[in-house]
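User: Fold this, then the next.

Assistant: Folding the first:
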Amino acid sequence: MKLRLVFLTTAIAIISAAATAQSAVGSVKRQAWSLGSDLSAAAVLAFEKAPKADVDRRFNSASRLATSFGVSLPAMPALTGEKSKDISPLVVYLLRTAGEPISKKLTAISPEHAAIFDLSMRTHIALMLYDPAAPDSGGIAEAIAKVRGASNLPNGLTDPMLAVITRKGTAAELRTEVIKIHNLAPPFIEVSEYEANGNRAFNEKNYAASAVEFTKAIAVDPDGAEYYFGRGRAYLMLGKNAEAVADYTKMIQLSAADRTAARNLHLAYNNRAAAYLGLGKDALAVADLTAAIKLKPDYAWAYKVRGGIYQRTGNAAAAKADLAKAESLQPGITK
């Protein structure tokens, strides 16, 4: 997934301004992350003596999300204004008073949902707890590393933050990495869930639902080559050949900047060839199958299909060569 991120320079401004984006309705996992992000951001803002309106905006956003999961958020604890005294009640509030009922509800959906919520909160909590001069700062990193495994989010999301803690970087450096995490995570989580839903629907042969899920993924990340591949595959099974051609063409265009997509490029050409065949465009199908074979010289299926086209269109010599090649690569494939 490729997302362009824009970061503001003032820490409180960033945490406060993110409220609208975090509370946007999306996938259930994204809502779990956003709930943790909004709730813990409200605590961080209160801890840093931000304007009450900013604290209330994030808390109210968290409250709406909590309500959607059947939880009523208790009020945050009253603070003294002395950070050394306020840290403990805020952390207890986040992880126990408010956090435990939410985690229980999310665990009923799946442990992964609860872990996503927990990771979202703990990355913000680190802003209150971290002290590069303290000997036990590594405990923050250990707690985050533990919960991120259960969240099934990529380590790359939090590795830069943990690296700052490990090398005892500055609080400002840590804040920068936490801000990046909370900007990147929501759309990443959302698009990953849509992709998983799309693949699941496809495997269940619910091709219309699969296409819908990949369309949602594309709306979040329009440069994600894999989502065009997934939707094109669904369109192909639905007989929507023109739409499939368009999606595979887009996937092929995007693959130049996407190494993962490039590895599957032979499949995109093969599938677009199938769509072209459905449209009666034999010459274009042959061109795509030839491209697929060039990318994957041992692609027996492409030889078989191209041989079949040659056979049907009267090119007996080329058909014989292709079918023989397919059979040599995968005995029995032409039977």
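Now the next one, as you asked:
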Amino acid sequence: MRNSSRGAVDPFIVMDVMAAAARAEAQGRHIIHMEVGQPGTAAPVGARQALTHAMETGSLGYTMALGLPALRDRISQLYKDWYGLTVDPARIIITPGASGAFILAYTALFDTGDRIGIGEPCYPSYRQILKALDLATVGIQTLAKNRFQPVPAQLTGLDLAGLMVASPANPSGTMLSHSALQGLIQTCHDMDATFISDEIYHGIEYEAKAISALQISDDVCVINSFSKYFSMTGWRVGWMVVPDDQVRQVERLAQNMFICAPHAAQVTALAAMECDGELQENLAVYKENRQLMLDGLQASRGSPLRMGHSMSMPMSANSQMTALPLRQKSWIRQAWLSRQVLILIPYAVRR
């Protein structure tokens, strides 16, 4: 059977490493997992209990393509609680994880061949999803002096139809200030380019609160997920916030591509939003792990580690990600410690 050229995307190396680690575990090896970006904590207890009740009392059939109304309402309240914003629930669309939101956003907003800017280094799947949709990725090499985030001056002359930005970023962990984010959004507006903000790490912050693009403009596409702060990576449920005139466009695509996000995951997500006490306890553990890693890195270098600015990335027993001076290529390093294998996906500067 023939394969399409647009389907010839690069593998998501993290998942290949995860599969290799699973094979090693099946052979009796003890693996310390640090290869994949997920909390070591489960979905909140109250959320799992709510799902148990829902399974016993309902059929959990299809939901509307836009998602459960109660969940969309509760996410609207989250924007009020976290950012002081009033976001109409009608603009909120529940998706099969942030990955489903990326597919919907790219498909709804861009046409074949459109040029989409992404700061590098970045979440590698952006590029591969864009390729699979016959969109052109324009890599913008970020610099340490700009905290590994794109800046308006770098967008000149690129003929972009859109710009994808993450704050907190993956893998650098840096966050955009209000003024930096505003500058990028305004530049995109001036260029008639769509601004997409990946905000899946919001809620996991240590030194400063992350700024949402919605605090600056309603004419943006914001993507978020229950994976990180809410500890629901495998449940595959996320959301997007789009302008009013984009809702029906995205809804039609969602109806045909996904029908709906998993009903069980939506029920669990709704209940998870009422479990802030447990989630804050998780965050305290991540913060302790983060400090442990920073202290160890400082000791290994023999001098203080210069962080420069507030950094924000989640760390847990199974996934420790912290903000280091990172750039260029990533590679896989497997360190064998007696009979244990430490699986890492480090990003570092090649000198």
